[in-house]
Write a structure and sequence with these properties.
Structural class: alpha+beta
Oligomer: single chain
CATH topology: Glutamine Phosphoribosylpyrophosphate, subunit 1, domain 1
Number of strands: 15
Shape: globular
CATH class: Alpha Beta
Strand order of the largest sheet: 3-2-4-1-12-9-13
Distance between the termini: 25 Å
Largest sheet: 7 strands, antiparallel
């Protein structure tokens, strides 16, 4: 299975510390070596509509692009990253997550951990997969159904209701853990409680403390890099640090994070 990493903040923040440990799971400390990707929403002045999107079919632990990202402090309020262990679709750039589409004049970013069997919905709108993964097919269907359900960008609460219904229709086909963002919030869905396929989250806020990575001997004192008003939420497939309290998602849970905090469970 693949692994997911998401970050949601109330102020632009870099993800270099978390990504550094996460990338090691892409072929070094774990076996997710079939490509990786990351997307950053940017541009507070235009409602975080800008997007930087990087993918590579090389393993994250050895990719020069991943090395750049781990050292380049791109600041964003919503980030989604993915390291791939291929189950459907060959190892190729077009099959690397996260996937990106446009709807209602905004970018939407999606990454999936799991394996959907016999999920072959009819795609009759503007959203068609480029690659051959079950994940991109599910994303295209979600975008198609969102476009049918709403005339314009709905509120976070309305989107959550629609996404909860759509996720429940896909989950019976297999493991369907995903991250989704349009730059306004981060949605995270967990469909299983198996230890190797779960989602966890942590909320970081004042007073900030030290954290040590699980996958590298690297620590940080967040208090040296934050203000008292900063809030950061991180979602991941397996805890990234050894000395923070990570909360596991319940099976079937769709959680929403906005401004660095959990807003609904």
């Amino acid at each position: 299975m693949c692994q997911l990493l998401g970050m949601n903040c109330n102020a632009p923040t870099d993800v270099t510390f978390s990504f550094r440990g996460f990338a090691q799971r892409g072929g070094n400390t774990d076996h997710h070596a079939d490509g990786w990707g990351i997307a950053f929403f940017e541009g507070e002045e235009n409602g975080d509509k800008g997007l930087r999107h990087f993918v590579d079919h090389q393993s994250a632990c050895s990719s020069p692009v991943a090395e750049l990202i781990s050292r380049y402090p791109i600041k964003s309020r919503n980030v989604i990253s993915h390291i791939r262990k291929a189950t459907q679709g060959r190892v190729a750039l077009e099959n690397c997550h996260p996937f990106v589409r446009e709807l209602w004049g905004r970018y939407w970013v999606f990454a999936h951990n799991g394996d959907l069997r016999d999920f072959a919905p009819r795609l009759h709108g503007s959203f068609r997969p480029v690659g051959t993964t079950d994940s991109e097919r599910a994303f295209c269907w979600i975008m198609q159904e969102l476009a049918k359900s709403h005339a314009d960008v709905p509120s976070i609460a309305e989107l959550t209701l629609t996404l909860r219904e759509l996720a429940a229709r896909i989950a019976p086909f297999g493991t369907f853990n995903f991250l989704l963002s349009n730059g306004q919030a981060l949605w995270a869905h967990a469909s299983t409680k198996a230890d190797s396929q779960r989602l966890y989250y942590v909320e970081r806020r004042h007073p900030f403390a030290h954290a040590t990575l699980c996958d590298e001997d690297v620590s940080i004192n967040f208090a040296d890099h934050t203000t008292a008003s900063d809030r950061v939420a991180v979602v991941v497939s397996a805890p990234l640090t050894t000395n923070e309290t990570w909360t596991a998602f319940e099976p079937g849970a769709l959680r929403v994070f906005a401004d660095g905090a959990l807003v609904t469970a």
